[in-house]
Amino acid sequence: MTTISGSSTSSIGSASSGGGSTSQIATLTKQITQLENQLKSLGTDDSLTTEQKSEQEQLIQSQIQMIESQIAQIEQQQAQKAQEKQEAKKETAATNVADGINRPTATNSINVYV
Predict the structure, then answer these.
(1) Mean pLDDT of the chain
(2) Could you give the CA distance from residue 79 to residue 11 in angstroms, rounded to a whole number?
(3) Residue ranges per domain, the chain?
(4) How far apart are the first and last CA of the chain?
(5) Does 104 score more than 70 pLDDT?
(6) What span, in angstroms and rounded, lies between the C-alpha atoms of 32 and 22?
(7) Residue 113: helix, strand or coil by DSSP?
């Protein structure tokens, strides 16, 4: 059972290093599902003592918490990028507003007849 948990931790690092954030979240969610299945099967495993089961359960639960925190971090990065894009749009819109001098509006224009 320990080797299965070890392979899960090695795949956590590879999932967070590449690809789009949506695919990262999907991969991490699959890993959580696999770890939850390991927890379920741990309860029916008679080859381990109760102490070993307890240790494995704690290990798996800590891995699930790590993955959940990675998902939260990715979602926070997505929200931050979206906010930065919104702010950039607001800045470009603010600079394009006519001020009546160099860029006259319908109500703010100067007619000069010579």
Answers:
(1) 78
(2) 25
(3) 2-95
(4) 92
(5) no
(6) 15
(7) coil
In the structure encoding, which two tokens stand for residue 88, read together? 């950039």
Measured at the CA of 89, the angle between CA 83 and CA 78, to 5 degrees, comes to 25
Contact 98, 104 (CB under 8 A): yes
42-92: pLDDT as tens digits = 888 888 888 999 999 999 999 999 999 999 999 999 999 999 999 888 877
What is the pLDDT, as a whole number, of residue 103? 65
Listed residue (83, 5, 73) closest to 38, CA to CA:
5
Going by C-beta distance under 8 Å and a sequence separation of 6 or more, which residues neighbour residue 36? 64
Stretch (H or E) spanning 89: helix 50-95
CA dihedral 99, 102, 106, 109 (to 10 degrees): 110
